[in-house]
Automatic annotation (TrEMBL):
Belongs to the UPF0677 family. This is Putative methyltransferase Ppm1/Ppm2/Tcmp, S-adenosyl-L-methionine-dependent methyltransferase. PANTHER family: S-ADENOSYL-L-METHIONINE-DEPENDENT METHYLTRANSFERASE YKTD-RELATED (PTHR43619), S-ADENOSYL-L-METHIONINE-DEPENDENT METHYLTRANSFERASES SUPERFAMILY PROTEIN (PTHR43619:SF2). It comes from the Eukaryota. One of its GO terms (biological process) is methylation.
């Protein structure tokens, strides 16, 4: 299978993976270390607060004279009297949103047989509704259940609908085993997929490693994983851009991914936009799976066992 994200295609060499049964840890009642007790309507809910902030950025971008993208549904999440952003510079988040949108659509439209899209989000991601997905695309959204449920009601209220002949399935981030839940909802590790992460709550480095482990176990060789991850994950270990890149490469390669850090400034320039000044809390990345998925390995194991048993039977008959 061709590389899904434009990486030079290397020979399909098996990179052995560590045994994987579940992404949850012993004596744990959570997935990826996330445990919040705030109520959906609680103003202090950090997950709801962050999701609304991101929706506000999309809402403002949509109403700029020359928007990077149009999100017709972001407005249902924010204050209708929100101040419009008429500045010429583009926010890092909006640059990343456009980059991820384009990569997703380019990939699903040009890779034969790719029908599985997994979005790791804050619960208010409107991509399933606002992007033009090909026929028969199955979209999985992994996000905090309480945020997603409230957002789904608001989207329903404004008439948002999934493209015809596509399927949209929610997977609660709080699931004790994300791999098992995805499989139960129909995800197939023997088929191509594309994974994108933006806004997913990550509390610790161990949380993100659990996410990488999940994606690695379910992604076929050559499949892509892109998006944004919190920059603070690396802040305690590195201080320069070079070491940030080295840290990223090691982290991803430990889970079978070849990764590239994407420069926000370069993306903005390619879009004819000027990036807003000031620091930003995330790292934009694009990666390719070099390993085979757990399902692929199991399929080949069963096939090898079948061939071996068939050979034994033929040998017995000859005797």
């Amino acid at each position: 299978m061709d590389s899904l994200l434009g990486f030079p295609q290397s020979p399909a060499t098996v990179i052995l993976r560590r045994p994987l049964i579940s992404t949850s840890r012993p004596n744990s009642n959570r997935n990826a270390g996330l445990s919040f007790r705030a109520k959906p309507n609680d103003a202090s809910d950090p997950l709801l607060h962050d999701a609304v902030n991101s929706a506000s950025l999309r809402f403002r971008e949509t109403h700029r004279p020359e928007p990077l993208f149009v999100d017709p549904y972001a407005g249902c999440f924010v204050d209708p009297n929100a101040q419009m952003d008429m500045k010429q510079c583009s926010h890092h988040y909006c640059i990343a949103t456009k980059y991820i949108d384009d990569k997703l659509l380019r990939t699903v439209n040009h890779i034969e047989g790719l029908k599985q899209v997994v979005l790791l989000t804050d619960g208010m991601d409107t991509r399933p509704y606002r992007l033009s997905w090909p026929t028969s695309t199955i979209i999985f959204d992994i996000s905090p259940d309480r945020v997603f449920s409230g957002a789904a009601e608001k989207l329903k209220g404004v008439g948002a609908k999934i493209p015809r002949s596509c399927l949209f399935l929610h997977v609660p981030l709080e699931s004790s085993d994300l791999q098992q839940t995805l499989r139960a909802k129909g995800f197939n590790g023997n088929r191509p997929s594309i994974w994108a992460m933006q806004g997913l709550p990550v509390m610790t480095l161990a949380n993100f490693e659990d996410i990488l482990l999940t994606v690695s176990g379910l992604s076929m060789n050559g499949c892509g994983f892109l998006g944004e991850l919190p920059a603070w994950l690396a802040e305690t270990e590195i201080v320069t851009k070079t070491s940030t890149r080295e840290w990223m490469e090691k982290l991803f390669m430990n889970n079978g991914f070849r990764v590239d850090m994407i420069c926000y400034e370069e993306v903005a320039k390619s879009l004819g936009k000027k990036l807003a000044a000031g620091p930003y809390k995330n790292i934009l990345f694009s990666s390719e799976q070099l390993r085979f998925s757990d399902d692929q390995m199991e399929t080949w194991r069963m096939e090898f066992q079948r061939v071996e048993e068939q050979g034994d039977e033929e040998g017995f008959e000859e005797l």
